[in-house]
Predict the structure.
Amino acid sequence: MRWLPLAAALLGCGTNAPGPGPQSSAAVPPGEAATAATPTTPTAQDPSTVIAVDPALLPDLALLRAHDQNRWEPSSEPAVRAAGRVFAGIHFEGASTTEVERLLGPPLKVGPDGTWAYYFHNGESGVVRAMHIAGGRVVRVRVVLTQ
């Protein structure tokens, strides 16, 4: 199975998968925060900004970014299944919050301790993925089953 760096996965470089469109290729200098006005693209010079992504997960990632996490109904089942595949197939520990948001979209909730929560629920059951953040990076992902 071939793995792609985050930049290629999201921009469609080297694959036939559609990406979200062109983004700036300028990296944000160390110590400066990226903003919506200054998107960044991971570079080979900075391997800490690359998450390995299996190309087979690209449609699932697109579905998760488009999914309204507030919708807890049967029509959300495809997103629930996609989340299971994505979280089983991508190692998020060590990833920056910028990388996580590029892959998954924004979290539904950010806790007072900085924990990012992603909700995928079909009305009967679902899963919350809680990402514990320290220093702008994911240090642990917790899975919370819901009913």
